Every structure is written in C-alpha cells, then in structure tokens.
Amino acid sequence: MQGCHTEAILTWKLAHLHFQVLVVTVCATLIILICLCTTRSEGLYTQCYKNLHSKTSQPQVPHLTKSKKHHCTLTLDKMMECFLQQSVDAEEKFYKYKEQRLHIEEKCREAEHTREMQMLQMLGQMLNGLSSTSQMTAPSHSSPSHKANLRNHPDSLHLNPSTFSPPIVLERPFSLRPTRPAKDMDNIFQLVRNVIPPLTSKKHKGQDGKIGIIGGCKEYTGAPYFAAITALKVGADLSHVFCTKDAATVIKSYSPELIVHPVLDHPNAVSEVDKWLPRLHTLVIGPGMGREDAILDNAKGIIEKAKSKGLPIVIDADGLWLIAQQPAIIQGYQRAVLTPNFMEFSRLYEALLSEPVETSDQHGSVLRLSQAMGNITIIQKGERDLISDGDKVLVCSHEGSSRRCGGQGDLLAGSLGVLLHWALLAGHEKINAQNPFLVAAFGACSLTRQCNHQAFQKCGRSMTTSDMISEVGTAFNKLFET
C-alpha cells in the first residue's frame, strides 16, 4: 500500500511538472512575439522620426533612440534567460520524478513475482500431498489396458503420469532488455557468454570443437549440410558428416569445408563410425537420416557406441522417430538433448506416457516427458522454445519471425552441438553451477531465433534457411560478444 501511495504522489508531481513546462513554454512564446512586435514598432517609429526631422532641418538624436532600444533588448534577454532556466529546471525535475516512479514500479513487480512464487510453491505442496494420498489408496494390481500397452511396446518404459509429483515450474523468459540488472546471476545470456572460448593464436586445430553429424541419404542432403556448416560458422574447427553413399557426393558439392564419410549404409557402418568417435566432441544424430530400417539399425548401434564413450549427443529429426519407437535406446542417458517440434514431441509423449499431450499445460508436459526419459534435456520447439531437464523449465521467447521454412531445426542442432562442447569444457564455475545442457540449449535456441529475425528483416517472405545461415556470424556477435 505504501508503494502504491508513493506512486500516486509521484504521478501527481509529474502532472504538476507537465503543467509548469506548458506554462513556461507559453510565456516564452508570448515574450518572443512581444519582442518581435516591439522591434518592428521601434523601426517604424525611427523611420517616421527621421522623415519628420529631415524636413524641418532639426538635429537628430540617434544616440537616444539606440540607447532606449538597447535597454529594452537587455530587459527582454534577461526575461528570456529566466524563463529558459525555469524550463530546464522543470524538465530536470520531471525526469527525476519519472525515474523514481519507474523504480517504485519495478519494486512492485518484484514483490508481486515473489508472492506468485510463494503461492505456486504452496499449491505444489498441496497437490503433492493429494497425490501421495491417492497413491496409498490405489489398488496394487495393474489394469488390463496397461498390461496390453506393456505387451505392445516391450522396449518402452511406460510410466503413469500420476506417479510424478506435481511440478513446480519456474518460467524464466529471458530477453536482451538493457533494464535487466547485470548482477542477476539468473541471466542465462551471461552464462552462455561465459562458456564461449576466446579466440587466440595459441590454440591448435580442433580444440574449439570437432562435431559429427549422423545423417544424410539420397532424398535428404540439405539437412546434414545445414547442421554441419552451422557448427563451423558458430565456431567449431571441424565438421564431419557420416551419410549414405548416394548422398556423399552431393553434400561435398555444397561446401569444401565439410569432411564427408559415405558409410552410413555400409554393412560395417557402426564400426566405421566408431573409429572416429574418439576424435569427436559431440554427435548430432538425425538430420536427413531417413527411416529405412537398415539406417535406423546403424544409428541405434552408433548411439550405443557413443554412450559407452560418454559422448554428448543431440538427437533431432529422424533420430527422434527412432527414439519414439525404442525409447530405451537413450532413456536415462543424461548427456543427451532431444529437440522435437510439436508433432515429434506428441509422438514421444504418447510413447512414454501412454496418453495424449495436455496442450493446456505445456510446461508440465515437457517437464513430465523429461522425467519419463530419465531427466534428459528436452527442447520443445515452437512459438516459444520450452527447455527442461526434468527439474526446471526455461522459456526462450527471443524474437524470431513468422516465417517457418524447412531446415531451421538443423541450424539449431548444429549450433547446439558446438555450445554443448563449450559448456561442458567451461566447468561449473563459469555457469554458476547450472546444468550445462540447459545453458547450451538456451544459447542455441536464442541464436537460431536471432538468425531467423535478421534474415526475415532482409528477405521477408522469401527467406530460406540459407539466408539464416549467412546471418550466423552477426547474430552470434550481437547476442554473445557485443
């Protein structure tokens, strides 16, 4: 109440200062008009006086006229100076009170946010108690429909959503507004900046990232190229593409910077890729991979090899199709990030939780799916990107555009592969003990949206993913290095 009363007083003072400025402005305008009229009248008077005395041959007194005019001018100048000084003082007071009012409004918003968080925590505790009571009274035998689901999906772990405690979701929409305090340690942009390695001549090739892309078949050659070239433009030193034989020549023709391995449809594909895994820092699985059974089997084997080496994995596109069919492949491996769009997310949710997605509770849905996957980090792409590790939910609502051309997800996957390596390399101190997978995911989402925004400003409706890739350098500099 005290803050609101203070705000009302400041509002009245601002209105009073507005009135003072208006009065001073009107007075200054009237004085200027009087000066102009006075000057003109004196000129006419002087001219008539000269004409009259030239006829009578009497001596003129120009000195008296100039002295009178000079005296009048000095008086008006002093009055003008006084009014201008009052106007400046009033304007300074206006901005001072306005700044105080904004400060009080910020305090009110912080207090309101604190109250909302307390209410959410109380609500979560109440629902948790209700959930515990329902679990104690529930029968121990499984329903027939649940047993049928277990038989239909032997490779999946089906979990009842009621077994999870109601989440306390902390929505954190971060932006680039300069009014956000720099000391706020929750500023995720600063955490992303902290993990970016400095450019120096003392490093050797490969230290800033060697990224592997598993994908690319005869029909889809653009997706692995988009992911691999984006990784290079973000700052990786080397990009490897492991694709089918038919796609290799096409992908090589797109760019000489990429290292292309035509082994994905080879009978010994898993062992061929396994030879390269110790040389890579991150693996991106899925862009343009296709859904042929032989390719999916090879991808499954590659995932197992990567897991055994503790390699960070990003799974996108057709890789998510494979996970929806066999969730156990990646379930519980917390060094993985899944990047589903709406349809891919719905498919995963139904496969893991045996029910449709609750569209009215998007935050809760992404949190529950992450928990069901064993607290794997999940990025649900959409109008706002929701990022969860099963413990919290981050919201990336950075400005993008209304243009949705194919290939933007590949740009996200490629940049995420690089940022994951940097975040893990930086250590917990530079990211304030936050989950490095959340930090990297937020950075990749923000960068993709910034590229989308900049490309749309230039190309409009004709924008394509190639236009977005050409904006990676300037977008990265604007977000993380300026």
TrEMBL record:
InterPro entries: CARKD, Ribokinase-like. SUPFAM superfamilies: Ribokinase-like. (6S)-NADPHX binds at residues 288, 341-347, 410. The chain crosses the membrane at residues 17-37. GO terms for biological process: metabolite repair; nicotinamide nucleotide metabolic process. It catalyses: (6S)-NADPHX + ATP = ADP + phosphate + NADPH + H(+); (6S)-NADHX + ATP = ADP + phosphate + NADH + H(+). Residues 131-146 have a biased composition (Polar residues). Keywords: ATP-binding, Lyase, Membrane, NAD, NADP, Nucleotide-binding, Phosphoprotein, Transmembrane, Transmembrane helix. Gene3D superfamilies: 3.40.1190.20. One of its GO terms (molecular function) is ATP binding. Pfam families: Carb_kinase. Its cofactor is Mg(2+). PROSITE patterns: YJEF_C_3. ATP binds at residues 381-385, 400-409. Residues 131-158 are annotated as: Disordered. Its EC number is 4.2.1.93. It is an enzyme of class 4 (lyase). Residues 188-479 form the YjeF C-terminal domain. Catalyzes the dehydration of the S-form of NAD(P)HX at the expense of ATP, which is converted to ADP. Together with NAD(P)HX epimerase, which catalyzes the epimerization of the S- and R-forms, the enzyme allows the repair of both epimers of NAD(P)HX, a damaged form of NAD(P)H that is a result of enzymatic or heat-dependent hydration. Belongs to the NnrD/CARKD family. This is ATP-dependent (S)-NAD(P)H-hydrate dehydratase. It comes from Xenopus laevis (African clawed frog). The lineage of its organism: Eukaryota, Metazoa, Chordata, Craniata, Vertebrata.
